[in-house]
């Protein structure tokens, strides 16, 4: 699987496995299926409520820690200096890890952005203490990123945002790239929300002998986005990983970009 480099030189796999909405009882089988298929990048978060189960699954895998890339996120209720430190310690404990590869602020605090800036200071401290290999944000706008830039001693290395063919995020994605921030896209196939039935996608699937989901994931990676599709179905987990060996042309990428409706399928 392709990788890309963050601004500090850390390498991140461009295709990962998402753990959102996987019930704890289903986590062991889902993680085993993903790791057996070849995934080495797991996207987690405290608010998903399944980090203890993910930690057990990682431990049971027997895969060397250095071969895995593990992300987690601090939730809104845990923002602020002391609360973020406690939340990070809880996540490490739940995942049974000594460090994280990436730690993100899950959402900007809409009511008190100063609290979010305090949280960023904690992430910088954790990074300097080498408890995390990279730090970043999620769901931050261009204006919010600029506010972080003004006070940061370490700039965000990742911005994780909703991204699929109906929400291309061209302007924000370009702003991130221009500022050495790697883009990550969640809901990468849009929950299958008619996107996989779109004629543009199905036509390309037929051309390349791939599934519509594989075409959309290939588009994500070909346009520089790190993604982590989620599924609890073993066949789909494996299928989502099998997107090597072909690339879309510039015209095909432009055609998919043209599907943009600026349509949020999640919270705006």
Write down how many β-strands occur, each being a DSSP E stretch of 2 or more residues: 10
User: What fold name stands as the CATH topology?
Assistant: TIM Barrel
How far from one another are the termini?
31 Å
Q: Structural class of the secondary elements? A: alpha/beta
Largest sheet: 8 strands, parallel
Site (Lowers pKa of active site Tyr): 73
GO molecular function, one term: oxidoreductase activity, acting on the CH-OH group of donors, NAD or NADP as acceptor
Organism: Levilactobacillus brevis (strain ATCC 367 / BCRC 12310 / CIP 105137 / JCM 1170 / LMG 11437 / NCIMB 947 / NCTC 947)
Family: Belongs to the aldo/keto reductase family.
Note down, in words, how this protein is organized.
The chain contains ten helices and ten strands. With 268 residues, the chain is of the alpha/beta class. It has one domain: NADP-dependent oxidoreductase domain (TIM Barrel). Helix 1 packs parallel to helix 9 and helix 3 crosses helix 4. The protein is globular and about 55 Å long. The two termini are 31 Å apart.
